[in-house]
Amino acid sequence: MDNPPDIVVMALGYAEQAKTLAIDWATSPAAWSQFALLVLSWLLSLAVSRRFGARLSALIGPKEGARGPVAAVRRFALRFLPLLLPLLAYGFTAVGEAITRSVFGSGAVIAFGKRVFLFVAARAFARDVLTDPFLRLLGRYVLVPLAALNALGLLDPAMAWLEAQMVELGNIRFSLAALIRGLIAGSLLFWLGSWSNRQSAVYIKAQQELRPATRELAAKAAEVIIFGAAFLLLLSIMGIDLTTIAVLGGALGVGIGLGLQQIAANFISGIILLIEGQTTVGDYVELDGGETGTIVKMTARACVLETFDGRWIVVPNDHFITTRVVNYSDQGSANRYEVPFSVSYDTDINLVPDLIVRAVEALPFVLKTPEGPDCELKGFGESGVDFAVEYWVNGIDDGRNKYASQVLFAIWNALKAEGIEIPYPHRVVELKGRMPT
Predict the structure, then answer these.
(1) What digits encode the pLDDT tens for the residues 289-312?
(2) Are 218 and 320 within one domain?
(3) Maximum distance among all alpha carbons in the chain?
(4) Is there a domain that residue 292 lies in?
(5) Same domain, 42 and 120
(6) Which of 25, 87, 287, 380 is most open to solvent, judged by the fewest CB atoms within 10 Å of its CB?
(7) One domain for residues 359 and 318
(8) Residue 363 and residue 431: Cα distance in Å, rounded?
(9) Domain residues for 204?
(10) Which residues of 386-411 are buried (b: 16+ CB within 10 A; e: fewer)?
(11) What was the pLDDT predicted at 153?
């Protein structure tokens, strides 16, 4: 190949240097003594870790069934025991390096060994210590390769080459190394932000003395602060001047004004809903279009309603501001319902109200305050006399709580027990003239 790429030339150069270095080490007494010290350090570390590893595990580990923050910290510390062997080897090697440099005036081999032990520690950290799937993936494909490059002495040249490769996006200019650092740091920051957001949300929602709307607002505010800080920190790590974001902010403002105004309206409406607290998670609502359900989730863009049959309805937040919404629940407030029924015209209707009131108020879920059951005469229908019983319950008849069904059963049983007939449609047909023969 007449004109090989620069990276091939660089690789061939490093391969030649490695060959020369290997030959020098193979023929040098000082190198052999350093190799011996490396082996001795590893064997000594192996013996110490086997002798004291179990004792250290028993000392650090909490008692079986122990709970609380102290036990959690001790269990967390216990996960780092796989690093004991390579870190001990690194420490013993550092001592051996000091001896070697004082005797032979060189320590290249033993310094290489130290880096190899660091590689072994990084591999054990990614394989045995990290339990989160994302962090384990990051450790396997980022930490371990970096440790391998460091062990081979190629980390600094690789970083210098990446720093020399520039990326330009309009007025923004940064190196390939900065881009890689940004991707790695961004992954870690947003993973940490997600973890912090989950922990803060759990803590805030556990504060029962706060109103549900206040808890939701505090959780959303914490989420915005956490991810906003992570974004600004990421820009700083990548070396991007924050003043250049002003252009992006202006373009984003125009986009919101033209094409994203509905999203902005929903976001602002969500903040208004959380601040006012008139509609919050757990409320049973009826929308202007007739949809009913319980609010199970409130996001920055929409509220999620769950119907009694398990379906989820996603409703934009601005619907709760600009249209009529009936809120049937206010964290356990009482609600009144009405059940109609009819009796035959042959019935003494003066007996019906007291009979039905006694039957309905005997039901355990029917309230006596703010008002007990009330049976009223509604009119005289085509087939019977129409009545309706009104009653109060502490909850919502939403399909899960079938209050009306139980009230109808009570009415049926009470009327049947008294021999009162529940009518069905009748028709009287008159035939005029002579019957055909």
Answers:
(1) 888 888 888 877 788 888 877 788
(2) no
(3) 139
(4) yes
(5) yes
(6) 380
(7) no
(8) 49
(9) 174-259
(10) bbbbebbbebbbbeebebeebbeebb
(11) 76
